[in-house]
Amino acid sequence: MPTPYPSVDAGSFHFSHETAAGDILLCGFSQFGLAGLTAADYLVDHLGLEQTGHVAADDLPAITPFENGTPRHHTRLFSRQDLDVTVLVGELFVPVSAAEPFTSALADWLDASDVAEVAVMAGVPMPHGPDDHQTYYVATEDYQATRLADSDVPPMGNGFLDGVNAALLERGIDSPFRAAVFTTPVHAQAPDAEAAVRLVETASEVYGLDVDTGPLEAFAAEVADHYEQLSERLEEAPEAERPDDRMFM
How much is the average pLDDT of 164-184? Predict the structure, then answer.
């Protein structure tokens, strides 16, 4: 019997999902300060989402996270039947050289799953002062019109992205699905819990999730050791394989 929900094999990446995905995909990847990853992980925990899919990667140096002796997939999809949001938690570092095939596989899965929009929560390492501790957006025009017309989230002034964030936005420019990157300045420590709080607050505002960020500091402390190891792996990656995500106010 064929699976009732789409699975996508695209080169080195394989997306599978056990239930119908929501119209909205929120992503947090293993990137600077792990702020986006921490935010996505917290949303899964706070909203009571259940794992409904995962992503496998053939040609990247794989990691297999585990907790209490039980392994899990490094990139997982979480949903809830009564919530039109699917959250992607990506603990695997995707180097710049793999960004295009990863995004192509993701785009194929988005099309097969009828997902209307994708938003990435991410930190950016940039010189900043206390007044810059807020979230900014870089988003396609249709995303801005749909989600941000009545929002207080300011646009990022100028700069450029690369890696997965850039590839998703580029595809969003010329495709039916709306795309955005919500980004905030991060510090060197991982996870940057304060930056993760800002990203969760923004996602909560934009999508009406009503998420309490109060416990996030404690949550970040609980997973700090695990994320510090992820951060060390990110630092070990060759400089050319790390995304720049250079942005300016």
Answer: 90
